[in-house]
């Protein structure tokens, strides 16, 4: 072994000589998904972080150019797979904006219900996993028990627990049933107690507060400049919320607050998510008691929503509409136009930029994934902090690799 | 606070050949390639479009009646004014270069890298224009319309490292 020619601390010592390079991921328990970060460390302090993504890239946007507007919903399930319902709603919201479809009031309320349940389930996972990474295992179990309840509701609603694919152009797969309403009511009744317990566990927990306060601070200006949305931006004091700013699905009818914090650190992001769950519960309670009567889907004569199986088998209009919509050379009347339509999902603004070319397959189906944009902020947040802060920052950003890489 | 129509009118005044259109309540403007950075910078600094929501691209290779090959799309929003505007820039081969907007919005960094990765549009002045989702050695730009869905055999000819070489 050759002896080092320089002494430690000498003027000739170049910076890179004493920096460590640490490879974090792509398989690491704290990344939760498949992503890789190459860290430059000075002792325990992170000097620089270079994210390396694309391990889960599966060409979702290319697939969007080959699957029709109803088929593609199954792919959106697999983007942010911790709140697939919200992705379904976001995709078909964009498609309906392109096609100029006005939903029935009942369908709007059903979609509000499932989006808010999806938001709660998203926040439960992100706060739960953040607790888990910083050592609060009980908190994680409390969160996951309630997520299980939401899965039960989704299972009763559409038969699938995880990849729901529940929405359709101009409507939903099945109308909501009284049993689902009952389960949602029970959830609204039970959940605040768990939420209270969860807050008691972490809000004043010395270890958790010390590990998250003043870690990964994002100022308001930076949050806007770096295109952050959702809880990440709101924890830094940006008041933007698509549900309030560009109301869709009749969100203007509901009474709820946009939750914001000013600190912009990991604790603020956790806190905003906890507060948002309470607001979502408020929306849920208002929606579930006021579901309008009437059909869930647009009528058969409009030729946009798929008719129910009963209509297909028992009426001639239903049969004709079904074949008109599913046959490869027929389908929807799509304008040769482009739209950008966004929804506020648990993670932030999930937008789709769709270009239609007259056929029933999108010419371009761009997804604006919040995780992708938030992960770009990560190196900026972690610089100067220690290696153990990395998991707290990563947890507070809620990076879902399937959405990150698509 | 100016309304969206005033912003569009002012933009048309300032930059020649800016065209605007509206569809489903969304206002879009098309800006010339040479003026795109100035127009975006003007929108950010003078009209309060402080957030870059999205940067993406559409390849109009097989699009009916399309005259240009690529349409680069910037979706802008104002967090104070709550306005939203889509700015499009039409690009044709061989000059697929536009100035990077990273000096204006830091958030454009990864979005522009993705457009470069998927469409091969070069952003001049970008601090770190590498591929982002695909591996460095990938040769094609897969979201172009002349790239097949099944790929061109990259998956089967992928370099395999053995344990001894690694």
What report would you give on this structure?
The complex is a heterodimer of chains A (406) and B (166). Helix content of chain A is 49%, strand content 11%. Chain A has 406 residues and is mostly helical. Chain A folds into two domains: 15-52, no CATH class; 60-405, Cytochrome-c3 Hydrogenase, chain B, CATH 1.10.645.10. In chain A, the strands form three sheets. Chain A has a three-stranded antiparallel β-sheet with strand order 1-2-3. In chain A, helix 5 (105-133) packs antiparallel against helix 12 (266-289). The longest helix of chain A is centred in the N-terminal third of the chain and has 29 residues, at 105-133. Chain A starts with 14 loop residues before the first helix and ends with a helix. In chain A, 53% of the residues are buried. Mean pLDDT of chain A is 87; it is low at 1-12. Chain B is of the alpha/beta class. Chain B has one domain (4-124): Beta Polymerase, domain 2 (2-Layer Sandwich). Helices cover 21% and strands 25% of the residues of chain B. Chain B has helices at 4-14, 36-47, 108-119, and strands spanning 19-23, 26-31, 51-59, 70-77, 84-91, 97-99, 122-124. Chain B has a five-stranded mixed β-sheet. The radius of gyration of chain B is 18 Å and the shape is elongated. Chains A and B meet through helix 2, helix 9, strand 6, strand 7 and strand 8 of A and strand 3, strand 4 and helix 3 of B.
